[in-house]
Amino acid sequence: MTADTPPLESPDRLRADMVATLIEQGSITSPEVEAAFVAVPREKFAPEAALSAVYSAQDVVVTKRDAAGKATSSVSAPWLQAEMLEAARLFRGAKVLEIGSGGYNAALIAEIVGEEGLVVTVDIDPFVIERAARFLAETGYPQVKVVLGDAEHAAEEHAPERGYDAILVTVGAWDCPWGHLLTQAGRMVIPLRFSTITRAFTFVRDGDRFVGLDPTVCGFVTIQGAGAYLDQEAALADGAVTLTIESGPRLDVAALEQALTGERAELWTGVTAAIGEPFDSMHLWIASVDDRFGMIWRDPDRGGDLVNLAMRWYCPVLISPHSFAYLTLREIPRGNDAEERRWEFGAIGHGRGRAELARRLHDHVLVWDREWRAHPGPDFTLHPADAAVPTPAVGRVFPKRHTQLVMAWM
């Protein structure tokens, strides 16, 4: 170690290592975003967290939880922040709106757009706004306009006359009421929820609609206020297992609770995957053809004897008021000449409709594997709520308050 080399556990050294990781994995691709990540001291925006957690390229730092322990504010994972900033294509002098505050991401934006730019960051939580304003001032970014308010309305009050060049939404939104605040050439990066799925889209104008580019698997703290949307949720076995569906008939929690420990139906598909082989388009396919699509979650410390989920998070399930069937996996025995471990997808059903739901989920997986697995994925467009939007030949329209999201398989 020389006099110019920071100690291994110092913030400067950890920050440099994080940036190197983000560049190596392709999350940072431009010198402007790289310079911002080098310049902004991330640890100053999450002083309660250990430095190792703050500078983990993959991890979120939770900064506030509600009474039930659910995260209500966080500093997003660096890889996702970097990719969203790259997608926004920010430039010197740009006018930028951030929905969902915390301070760190706003500081990164301020570094890129410079003193001649504008950064407005909006949050509904006074705790979050007080921290963000304080941390931004302490780290040298007092020019960021920190706004306390419901982003559904407050963002418009501070919009420049010609609109924002970019809008970055850093909370999980169910709808998008901000499109009219964007310049004609602007870009809007937003994690949008539909049918319990969340994808971070980069929306660009195409006439009177927006085209959604690069849908990225992600998870964010859910938006609060007027823009909030409550999915139907059934917490079973005292919260060990939770079912979530966006809409449909009211769930019979008592019947689902009983179904969880009752007789099961089990079907195996013959469809397999290896470690690291992506299959997230399966979620999109099932959601596009079955309005009973939802998600099933298991408490990490409980419920392992009740359900055998294919994924710890974001595991697909078909849900009726009294029954459900979820995606599962089992490892395929390897012969002597097998080069890799593989797992087979299956469907496990619970409740009186278990056989029918398990069969439907099983069949959806087969169709996805046969016709769409090698496909690059569906196209997404966002339209005004009052627009006449035809249902795609293969796909689905997701109506919302301000917009309609169209998912079409071509």
UniProtKB/TrEMBL annotation:
Signal peptide: none annotated. It is found in: Cytoplasm. GO terms for molecular function: protein-L-isoaspartate (D-aspartate) O-methyltransferase activity. CDD domains: AdoMet_MTases (cd02440). Its main location: cytoplasm. It comes from the Bacteria. It is an enzyme of class 2 (transferase). InterPro entries: Methyltran_FxLD, PCMT, SAM-dependent_MTases_sf. Keywords: Cytoplasm, Methyltransferase, S-adenosyl-L-methionine, Transferase. GO terms for biological process: methylation. It holds the Pfam family PCMT. Its EC number is 2.1.1.77. Belongs to the methyltransferase superfamily. L-isoaspartyl/D-aspartyl protein methyltransferase family. NCBIfam families: methyltran_FxLD. This is Protein-L-isoaspartate O-methyltransferase. It comes from Nonomuraea africana.
